[in-house]
Structures are given as structure tokens and as C-alpha cells.
Write a structure and sequence with these properties.
heterodimer, A: about 500 residues, Penicillin-binding protein 2a (Domain 2), Beta-lactamase, 2 domains, 5-stranded antiparallel sheet, 21 helices, B: about 475 residues, mainly alpha, two-stranded antiparallel sheet, globular
Amino acid sequence: MTLQGPGRGHERPLGGRVARLSLVLALVYCGLTLGAGYWQVYRADDLSHDPTDAGMIAAARSVVRGRILDRDGHVLATSRLDAAGEPYRVYADASLSAPIGYASRLYGSAGLEAAYASELLGTGGDDPASRALAKFRPRTGRGDDLQTSLSLSLQKLAVSLLGSDRGAVVALDPRTGDVLAMASTPTYDASGIANPATSRAAFAAARNDPGQPLLDRAIQGRYVPGSVFKIVTAIAGLSSGAITPATTFPQQPAAETTGLLVDGYRVRDGHHLFTGSEVLDFTRATEVSCNIWYALAGLRTGGAGMDEAARRLGFGAPLPFDLPTAASQLTNSGGPLPGGFADDVELANAAYGQGEVLVTPLQMALVAATVANGGVEPQPRLVTAFVSPSGAVRDVAGGTLGRVLSQGDAGAITTAMVQAVEGADGQRFTTGAQVPGVTVAGKTGTAQLGGSGEPHSWFIGFAPAEAPTIAIAVIVEQGGHGGSRAAPLAGQMIAAFLAAKP
Amino acid sequence: MTAATLPGFPRPIVRRRELGLLLAVAAALALGNLSLGLTRAGSLTVVDPAGLLIYLGALVAVHLALVTAGRRVDEVLLPTVGLLGGIGLLLAERLPQDLVVQRVGSTVLGLASLQLVWLILALVIAAVVAITVRSDRWLRLYKYTWAAAGLGLLALTFVLGTDVNGTRLTLDFGPVSGQPSELLKVILVVFFAAYLAENRVLLADARVRVVGRLTVPPAPYLLPAGLMLALALGIVVIQKDLGAALLFYAVFLCLFYLATGSKVDVALGIGLFLVGFVLLALVFPHVRDRVATWLDPWSDPLGTGFQTIQALHAFARGGLLGTGLGAGLPTIGGQLPIPAVHTDFPLAALGEELGMAGVLAILGCYLVVVARGLRIAAAAADDVRALLCAGLALVIGVQAAIIAAGNLKLIPLTGITLPFISYGGSSLLVNGLIVGLLLAFSDRGPLPPREPRRARRPAGGPG
């Protein structure tokens, strides 16, 4: 019972060495703990969300993805079982390909199918609390449904109005940021890609299409905006105090015939047939889309003021959204002048949407929505709620991107945009955006691309002007003047939306 | 001895601590079983209640046997090992039953039933050994006989054994097959303990100068142990049982240190091991492949690296708290993601379903087993028994560390079992034997006679 046995010749007891050996063993086990921590905590997300992870593969093959629903309860995406009993996706309409995307066993996923894969597959939220809770819930083999703000009828209409043209339409509720329609043409056969029987052929067709249907133009396309960008210049000028609604430029009437000389470059206009030598204020300049007035307003606001307002609107970074968006830009940001402009020519040109300005249709829809919403920019969103298989609804909180300009300035811009659509001279440029019985606010754009090609046809606007419920941005690539393609398209979208509302 | 205790009729001794711990273990296993049932059926369900009850009943039976036998043996080992075995049983319940199928007469037993049978047998062995073994004379006096028997058994496997997964480790006895290298680890501990205790003074003090101040024990004293070690290592290496080789060598070094206290010798031993390992890698392609797979399993993700990568993904899916029992290990086309999960990767499976928390708990259990073993060793009456107990405990702790480290890609993967948890008859039976021996050697003798006013007897052995 004692350490020192009787007659023990060696004086060092085993006890001390046992303690030291225990320490070494404890250190070895500490190493094992660190190893477990490395794989189970540090590398956990990285490995478990890898497409080759057995859990991801098994879920994609066995779990029935949740449905995707539109605002009226129409099913946009659902699952069917193939001969082997494994589920595959079916989409309600080809017009949905851009926002919904596809989920394919061979080609992964895109769009909402990719962005909300873990919810649709029911692998749950990644926060520790919901993971822990998931342990106490039975596995359903079915993921959550996505409730979206899309309107299937509006989406179909947008795509059919774009027709064989390439382009994009983004319509959203300016009060909430809920996206009503987000079309990108040409569309592709998402159901074909999702169906195992036709997957390869459909994907090859989409990838080899010169129209690049896999590019979601509404959020990934970056376009020269032309005159629709004047609304951004108006926001910058009014909110910085550089201009007021009453601002006029004395040199403007004379410059209409000869062009406004800026550092040797001539800014030209096409409206002097209708305005003659009239001195234009903000509203009139917007109504007739006066490049010279806006160039002067941009120069007076300055590069820094323009840049600051553009950033407040979300330029310069991807927009916070359900889907990955491209960043819009005011300049190439390499120039020496404030805001990154190379010179005053670029600044003057940017003020009416040329220069180096590139925008996404979603960004321009948000510009319209900001004005419509009294100066507060709504945060755009597609998914409004998750519905679990048991029927539990988890709402997604909406939000705003903050106040961009004052309510008064927003009202002034609204007045000008109403004039641009409804005014006698405005109607010459904005044919077709009018909706009987509704006051529409809007602005066309005709984006010159250089070369001999047709310009991009643009329109942004909202309605009803007094209490807007829809804001819209339309671009038809090489569709000509804003009034020839985009404005009438927007008019029909607005009419259809307001007519359908109870 | 008082008049109340007649030989053969020992006074029963209440083992409160063991009973309390066993109750906690029973509660934990019942909860685990309910959790598995909830995941499977979607409602509160007990999975195979008979299996759980039989296992818990067996644990209680061993407890009652120890109480009745009236031996003052360790009270923590049985519940700890019982928990590990129970976790292994839960895992066996959770895995596909057709991973192992054995036909006994007209009944076909699946994984969980077989694991239960082996666990019960292991508990029986542990209880019988713990109660009946009173002396270690039969072990220490015949150390060379035991060693020869062990090596013979191993050689027999080599000649007559059957190939499983390309390595010849299994010996068939009719319907039952066993892996003699499992038994060899106990025999080696017995031999080393007896040998090192006998020669510890000479090994520590009679030094031969090598160079400068560096001295080693004289070769003649090292020879028997070295020869035995070399033979054992040689056979298992040729059998490609690298895990067993690493285990034997590590336990030998530990015992050598405990016996002589010479850190220099241990450092030399580690150096020798590394040199030997490099030589092995140069000679044997399968060792080289094992190392290459360890360094970068992703170079061949669907071939040699598959098992390792899948295990790491399983750990990752588990995260901190795990997916819950039964909710992990997603099958693809009916296949489990990790091949040989029940023998080689139970820790990865448990790491996924119980999370890092579960892994730490399991590792903690092994540390408890080692701590109890070393405690018994420190309290032992003489050197042989001290080294014997330490060696037996280290076999468990080192083996668990080796396979855990292999699962976690900290060292190359070896095919040894996770003690008490992995599926495998010989492994469980031998581990049962180890627990039995540790219990038997922890006996603190009969209760001292009752005194009128006695202070509370000291807890545990003298430290």
C-alpha cells in the first residue's frame, strides 16, 4: 500500500515519474483537442458547405427542395420525382429564369436556388442556436418554402414586352423595396437544365447562346444610363444645395444651337426646336431632358458632390440584395479630380449619364424608388418569408438603405418627372409611358454607345405620382430612343400592375 | 480479518460511488437512445429497448458481483468504460445493421446485436478477472512463456490467417475470428513490466558511454526486451498493422521511462523510431502510400484519400454540438460516406453526430481510464505490479490517442480500434481483460476491522 516497497533498492519512487508521464499524455490529448477544434470549428463551414461534401450531395439528391412562391401564392418552382425517386426541379415559366435560377444535379445552382440553398434544402440556419434546435426536431426530408415578392403575371408581362430584344426590367414597391418583377432577356430553359433527362443539352444551349441568357442583366448588367442618370444628378445637386428647382443658367439658351463648350468639348442638345431661346429651370430642363442645363448643374455640384450622392444611392459597391449584384459606377475612379473624374468634360458628360457612368437596372430602379419614397431609399428584396414544411412562417425583416435626400427635394424631382411624362413637351420625348387615369412620373434615357449602333433605350419612373406603389427601371439594349421602346414598355407594366390591384 | 468474514464468504462492500456513476451513465445512454429514436421516428421512441436494458443490466450485474465479492477495487473504471461501451453500442444501433452480419444457427445477428454480445462477454471477462485474480504471480513468473505464446499466436496468424482488406490480421476459429495482435498487447505489457522491474536498477545505473556524456544501458540488459520488441514489431509491420506497431513501441517507451526515469533513453528511443519509420517508408510501398495520403489526401480525393477526406468532412459537419444522433452521416445511394466507419472511424461518426463536445467527452473518458490506471500503478505494492498496471492503462490511452489522431489527420491513419467503441470482438474482449486486471490489481485489501469510533476512511489510495 505504500510507494516505497520494502527492500526497494532504487530510491526514486515511481510516483514522480507517473505524474510526469501523465502530464505528457495530457499534452497529447490537448493536441487531439486542438485537432478536433481545427476541423470542427475552424474548418467546419469551409468543409461542410463544399459541393463535394456528402451532406450537400445527399441533401440535393434526397431532400425535396422547398417551393418558391410568388406574392399571390402562385408556385414558381416545385419539385418532381424522377424514375429513381430522386427529386428534380420544375419551374412555372421561362420568364423566371433570371431571378429564380436553376438547381441541377450536374451544374449546381444559380439565382435564388443558389442563394437560399440551405433554406430550400432544410439544412437550416448556420447560427449555433438554430443548429442546436434542429437536433430536437425530426428530419422532414423537405426544405422550407420561399415566399417571394415577385408577381408571376408581371414577370411574364415584362419578358413578353421585351420580346426578342435583350434587356431588363426591374419593378419594385418603393415603400418596401419588394421586387415585383425582375426580368432579364433572353431567358433560358431552367426547367430543362434541372431535369436530369435534358440537363446537358439545355445547359449547353444556354451557355452557347450569344445572347448570354445566364447573365442576369437586371442585377449583373452594367449599362451606360444616358438621360435617366439626370435624376441622380438632380439628387446630387438639390441635396448638396448647388441647385434649386428655380436654378437657371444664363448661358444655356445661347448654347442650345452651338453646343456648350467645356474644355474644348461641345455638349449638344436636341430640343431647341421646341424650346427656342427659353431659359430653362429645373423642371423644364428635366421635361425636355436638357443636356446643357444638366451639364452645367453637374459642374456646379462638382465631382465630390456627385460622388457623395451616388455613393449614398449605393454606387461603388454591390447592393445589399438576395442575389449577388454588380456595382454601379460614376467614374473609373482613376482621375485626379474629386470623385475620380479625369476632367470637367467627363464630369459634364456624366451629369447627363454619359462619360464613364455604368449602372445596373436594379440600381436605377432604386433611384426611382428613392424619389418615389420621399427621399428614403428602400432596401430591395425578393424573399419576404420562409415557410417550414409544418407551416411555420419566418418573416424576413425589410429595411431601408437610409435617407438620400429631403422630402422636399424628392417632391421637386417628382414634379419634374411628372412633367417629363405628362407635360406637353415631355410627351414628345416620353411617348407611351402615360397611363390613363394615373399620373406617372418618369424619365427616359437614350444611352449613346459610340459607333454606329442604336443607343440603349432607358426609362425609370413610378406611379401613381401622388402615392407611388410601383417604381420601375427598363432597359432595352440598342432599343433606340428612350421613348421608342422603354417608356411604352414601362407604361404597360404600370398599367397592368395598377389595374390588377384591388 | 474479523470473525464476520470467513474465507469464501467475504463481507459485501457497498460501492456507492460506482453505483452513482453507473446511474449517471444509464441516464446518459437512455437519453442518447431517446435522441436517436426521436431522430429516426420523429417521436419519443426507444431504439431497441431490449438491447439497452440488457447492456445496463450487465453493468449493474458486474457492479453487484463486485459488491458481493467484497473486494475494495476501483469504483470509477467500470462506469467510465461502461459509458464508452454504451456509446459504442449506440453507434452500432445507429449504423446500418448489415455492416456486419453473423449467422448463428438459424438467427442472423446484425451489427448492434453482435456488438452487444461482445460487450456482454467483455464485461463477463472483466468481472471474472476482477473478482478471481488475487495475485500476479502467474503473470510475472512466466513472462518468457507468455511472450513465446504471444509471438507464437502472432506467427500462427501470419501463416494461417485470412486476409482482410489486404492485411493478414485475422485468425479464424470456426465461425468466430479474432485478431491475436490485440491479445499480444497485453502479453507484451506483462513481459515488459516483469522484465523492466527486474532490471530497472541495472538499466538506469549500469551505463555504457557512447559518445561524450551520452550513455546507454549495456546491451546485454537491453537484449531480451529489444529482441521481444523487434520480433513483435517485425511481425506486425510485415502484417501491415502499423497502428499496433506504433502502440507497442509507445507503450514500451512509456514503461521504460517509468522503470528507469531516463529521459535520454526515451529520447533515443523516439529518435530510433523516427529512423526506423523512414527506413520502413523506404522499403515498403504501402507505408509510403500511407504517408502520402496523410500529407495530402486531396491529391486523390476519390481513391486513397477518400476515407480520410470523408472523415474530415464528417467532423466538419458536426461542428461544436453535432447534428444529433442519427441525423448525421448522410448516405449517398444507400452508402455511408465513410468506409469502415464502425471499425476505423467511429470517432469521426461520433464527431459528426455529437460534435466537438462529444469528441472531447469521449477523449476525457479515456483520460479518466488512464488516470485511474496510473493511480492504481502509483499505489501498487511493488514495481512489477506498478509497471503492469501503468502499462495496461497506457495501452488503452495510447491506442485511443493513436486512432483519434489518425481520424483527425494529425498522424497517418492506422487501422487500430477505438477501445470499447469500435466494433470488433477481439478488441472488446481484450479490453475487458485489461479492465478486469486493473480492477483486480486496484484491490486495497479487506476492510480493516470495525472500530467503535472510526474516522472516515480515506478516499482513494494513497497518492
